[in-house]
Design a protein that fits this description.
It is built from eight helices and seven strands. It is an alpha/beta fold. Helix 6 links the parallel strand 4 and strand 5. GO terms for molecular function: methyltransferase activity.
Length: 234
């Protein structure tokens, strides 16, 4: 058994204790015909709304946990140069197929987000649709540091995550309970108060429930997700 000699060793040990392995996500994305709402190639309704509110324009974007690429594709079509990261090679294969169909270019990165070599203050937008609620509490400080390092001054970080005890997931267990039961129970849930507290170093622009979109709308929106956008002001 490996010894724990420093803080990184401790975090890696806890990662292995709690995180779903890459194989889990590869199997999850391997069947493209599964009836999973966010498998549809539509951007998040809140992401579209940020353009409508003229919060977003264009520039460099980093997407954390891009899955099959639906939001990265939308951002590219809106004029962003996108780096899109995901742990699953199967999700990125699907995303690349979609970019070929649309004749666009996205820089896909198959990596753990905490292993990224990020250029400081490179991005005008960091976007996360469904990655954060799979991150254990011991990695939150690293997550926040990643956002801080990545973003330019006065630029935006936006997130979608499970609502606490919501209809599609969102465990209400405490941070302490995560380690006592050795599980995130499929993903942690959050409230507006929790998000504001976790990202208190940023200026909160908006926190709200995701709007439920009709099936004929060109956007993705379901009940059970919390959306938020923050601005880097330090």
């Amino acid at each position: 058994m490996a010894n724990i000699n420093n803080y990184e060793d401790l975090k890696n040990m806890l990662d292995n204790l709690l995180r779903e392995p890459e194989q889990f996500w590869d199997e999850f994305y391997s069947d493209r015909e599964k009836s999973i709402p966010f498998f549809e190639n539509k951007p998040d309704e809140n992401l579209v709304s940020y353009f409508n509110q003229q919060l977003l324009n264009s520039g460099n974007a980093l997407e954390l946990g891009c899955g099959p690429g639906r939001n990265a594709i939308y951002l590219t079509e809106k004029g962003y140069k996108v780096d899109a990261v995901d742990l699953s090679i199967e999700s990125l294969k699907w995303a690349r197929d979609r970019t070929i169909e649309k004749n666009i270019t996205i820089n896909f990165i198959n990596q753990n987000i905490f292993d990224l070599n990020i250029e400081e203050s490179k991005y005008d937008l960091v976007y996360d649709s469904g990655c954060f609620h799979h991150i254990a509490p011991h990695r939150r400080m690293d997550y926040i540091d990643l956002i801080k390092k990545s973003l330019k001054q006065n630029c935006y970080f936006a997130i979608n995550c499970f609502i606490e005890d919501g209809p599609i997931g969102g465990s209400s267990i405490s941070d302490w309970e995560v380690y006592s039961i050795k599980s995130l129970r499929g993903g942690l849930g959050f409230t507006e108060e929790k998000l504001r507290r976790i990202f208190q170093d940023f200026e909160c622009v908006e926190v709200r429930n995701m709007r439920v979109a009709e099936s004929n709308e060109p956007v993705f929106g379901v009940d059970g997700l919390l959306t938020a956008i923050f601005q880097k002001k330090f």
